[in-house]
Amino acid sequence: MKGQKVIFYLYNLVWNIALPFLKKSSTFKDSYKLRTSPNHFDKTDIWMHGASGGEAYVAIEILKNLNPSKSLKILYTATTAQGLEIMQSFCESSKLHSDIKCKITWFPFDCPSIIEKIILKTNPKIMVLLETELWPGHLYMLKKHKIKTIIINARLSSKSSARYIKTRFLWQQINPETILATSIKDAKRYQKIFGSETLVDTMPNIKFDSIPAFDSEPDNDSKQNNTGDTSTLGTIFLPDTKLSILASIRKEEEEHLKVILRFLIKNFPDQIIAIFPKHIQRIKHLSEMLDKFTLELGSEFKFKWQLRSKIGSQVNEKTIVLWDTFGELKHAYAFAITAFVGGSLVPLGGQNFLEPVVCGTATVTGPYLNSFKWVNKDIFESQLVFKAQNALQVGEFMVGKLKNPPDKKELKKRGVEYIRKNQGGTARAVELINNSLN
User: Fold this and answer.
1) What pTM was estimated for this model as a whole?
2) Reduced to 3 DSSP states, what percent helix, strand and coil does the chain have, rounded to the nearest 5?
3) Which residues pair with 181 in a beta bridge?
């Protein structure tokens, strides 16, 4: 214990030396005061912390399912503006339980003296950490003031684990009470770091609970509204349309996009191709690109392109539709035979490739899926999703499915079963939080 006090005295000293420099940094210009002062904090029941956007979505699933019997005050902190914005948007959407009051602010700097002032001001009953948020000064002060600490949806890479193990003598003195990890491998890594004093178990990844395993069969009978659902798209695509979707295409992938388009058109010209850019501001550039691209194809293929906003009737084959409206991608998947999900042909982390899977769409991604490491490899091994290594392989996969379409209902059934099999993490997390509160 004496050694621990010396370590954190020195740790606190280093932070105090660094703080004046951080104050001058443009990075912390707007948040410095909020990260160092306890004045804007209030007494709370639960302090929940997640680093960025991914953790914010995990927190939202938990908050949506908390059903308190009395008023509950929650403090949510994040280390990125994205995490704060996502949580703020949720809390303003009226989807929060009426008995839950949620304050959202920056996570303080990990200076032990700052953390202690905030703990004394907030006096939380429990601390809920999401995924991989391990700050030594924070954990030290939680332990000192006997605040029950749990980690939910916990994950830890082998690289990070190796780094933490080198100082596990320290971590085992500031250990949380309970950790629910998203895999057996993650659980073992955490157990090695924190030791037998911490209860470590596994849970389904909460991120699966945010994926709706919904019924989305193309419906061509109801065409009255214009809300971006499948009935609206029924005026554009017939249920037997040969439709390919290139979804969530990022700026850095646009050269790859041309390779895929060229392969699809030359090897299966009798189709419709829908392009959904990830960022709507790329529409102008993509429009210019498609003007040149269709011109280069020549009269042999007779392909044309249209903006989605300009379409009011059924689209014919040999058409590229460039989507310049919001909210229809998930519903468009219901009409597609095959889809490529972008952000994955270059190291950008990938985009959500589970959405087309639950629609029964034959799905392909690129090799870069770092943002989706939480999805187990079995989804690729079971051939629910194919991971291509380059743009040419993407095209080959999609053409293969266009020529020999899979049974969409059977593929959808398998996709829904896969998602549901991996759901349930939120209920487990809520149960642990309620038990810890009580």
Assistant:
1) 0.78
2) 45, 15, 40
3) 154, 202
d(CA 202, CA 182): 6
Q: Cβ contacts of residue 234 below 8 Å, gap of 6+?
A: 218, 219, 220, 221, 222, 223
Kindly give the residue spans of alpha helices, DSSP state H, lying in 25-52: 32-36
Strand partners, 201: 180
Q: What is the pLDDT along the chain (438 residues), one digit of tens a residue?
A: 667 889 999 999 999 999 999 999 999 999 999 999 999 999 999 999 998 888 999 999 999 999 888 899 999 999 999 899 999 999 888 778 889 999 999 999 999 999 999 999 999 999 999 998 899 999 999 999 999 999 999 998 888 999 999 999 999 999 999 999 998 999 999 999 999 999 999 999 999 998 876 554 554 443 333 334 555 788 899 878 899 999 999 999 999 999 999 999 999 999 999 999 999 999 999 999 999 999 988 777 889 999 999 998 899 999 999 999 988 998 999 999 999 999 999 999 899 999 999 999 999 999 999 888 888 889 999 999 999 999 999 999 999 999 999 999 999 999 999 999 999 999 999 999 999 988
> Do the domains 22-210+423-437 and 230-421 sit in the same CATH topology, yes or no?
yes
Q: Among 3.40.50.300, 3.40.50.11720, 3.40.50.1370, 3.60.15.10, name the CATH number for the domain at 22-210+423-437.
A: 3.40.50.11720
Q: What is the CATH T-level fold of the domain 230-421, as seen in this structure?
A: Rossmann fold (3.40.50)
Could you give the 3-state DSSP secondary structure of residue 170?
A: helix
Q: What letter represents residue 191's amino acid?
A: Q
Query: Where are the domains positioned within the chain?
Result: 22-210+423-437, 230-421
Contact 320, 261 (CB under 8 A): yes
